[in-house]
Amino acid sequence: MSTAIRTAPPVVELSAVTKEYPGGVTALRGVNLTIERGELLAIVGPSGSGKSTLLHIVGTLDLPTAGSVRIAGYDAAALSDRKLSALRAQHIGFVFQAFHLVPGMSAQDNVAEGLLYSGLPRAERRKRAGEALERVGLGERLKHRPHELSGGQKQRVAIARAVVGEPDLLLADEPTGALDSASGEAVMELLHELNKEGATIAVITHDTEIAEMLPRRVRIRDGLVVEDAGNPVVASLLREDAR
């Protein structure tokens, strides 16, 4: 008797996604995007290209005007606000340029905040936070508050907070934007390491140098995906569409 092999759905499936805002502004124009588990990619484009809107759509912070969005197999449009919040908490980790750490709170407690809605007791949240900080190379900085950390260390704390719950997807929005070159390179090396450990990571950036450091690059311009380098299947489809 044969046994069917079940495969996990893609982490992200966007189909014909359009986003329009009042005043006739169209930020996304029929975007198709699939992100498989274990991928490391850049979503890259200049200011006004639509990449920030795409971040909000993929992160379920906003819903499209048209098209479908599935995250870890869940149809975002079919979920209530409460269930969308639960989806984000369980399946998506966010890293932002400005870190968004709580000033008077230790690094360990900042990371434990990432498990606030997990239902775990506080002691277990803090234990896992300590392990996440070890994972990003900050095991000696558990009790340090944000003002006692460098910019690169703050971003590592933010990354630890984003991955402590083992989300299906890590969305990093301009993760090196507030850092000097050396700290930025260290953060990108960390993202590569986390990806090798199995994390699915999408880096949203305007910086083409950062994008070129990643194996897949999805370029956005005027609300359209104009290039998907490093993804031969999609690249072939784009060439067919252009004919």
TrEMBL record:
PROSITE patterns: ABC_TRANSPORTER_1 (PS00211), ABC_TRANSPORTER_2 (PS50893). Keywords: ATP-binding, Nucleotide-binding, Transport. It comes from the Bacteria. Residues 12-238 form the ABC transporter domain. It holds the Pfam family ABC_tran. CDD domains: ABC_MJ0796_LolCDE_FtsE. InterPro entries: AAA+_ATPase (IPR003593), ABC_transporter-like_ATP-bd (IPR003439), ABC_transporter-like_CS (IPR017871), ABC_transpr_LolD-like (IPR015854), MacB-like_ATP-bd (IPR017911), P-loop_NTPase (IPR027417). GO terms for molecular function: ATP binding. This is ABC transport system ATP-binding protein. It comes from Streptosporangium brasiliense.
